[in-house]
Amino acid sequence: MAEFRTTIHLPSITSMLGQAGRPLLEFTLIPLALFWVLFTQVGFDGGLFAALGWSALAIGRRLVQRQKLPTILLITTGLLVVRTAVGLWTGSAFLYFLQPTVQNFVFALALLVTIGLDRPLLAKLADDFCAFPEALSSHPGIRRFFKRVSLLWAVVFLVNGATTIVVLATQTVGNFLVVSTAGSYSVVAMGIVLSLWWFRRSLAGHGVRLRIGAPTAA
């Protein structure tokens, strides 16, 4: 049995799911839903402006309230600006959705390139979904973990990119949105489960035990 020398407390499961779910809902699912609603009711351009307008509103609200801009919001909005410009220029839904598909490969490359940094890109993105205490994020074992798990997520993005290209080339826009969203999040969910298992195993190997929820009062 592992001998634990340090115990680190994380927020409750409900709190962590809420913190992780909000960025996913706000930065991905809502823009996608707005695009589909306006696309079917107004047209392609209406869908483009609806998705981009939501992301711009999310950034503007945080700037007005002087809140920190999440890394994932800046990345997704920057990429969405490029997608919207291409969509307006070409009028092609295929090219509009091809870009986020290609971006899977770009993310995979970015994860691999930043492995050599003190804090890889994956570690910075993790801060947007679950704010780890300083005692945990600065632990040498955690730094090594994020370098290694970056390889896993590079594979996740490569698989997502390859499968999405196939669906995009063979399905209508409506079917593509349903099938690609369900498929992508299924692969991502498996990556999360494997990452969490690896995370706990890595910590245990360094004598660190995780406790979920507030520490018990002495």
UniProtKB/TrEMBL annotation:
InterPro entries: UCP010219 (IPR016566)
Membrane-spanning intervals of the chain: 33-59, 71-90, 96-117, 151-170, 176-199
Protein name: Intracellular septation protein A
Source organism of this protein record: Pseudonocardia xinjiangensis
Keywords, sorted A to Z: Membrane, Transmembrane, Transmembrane helix
Pfam families named in the record: DUF3159
Lineage, highest ranks first: Bacteria, Bacillati, Actinomycetota, Actinomycetes, Pseudonocardiales
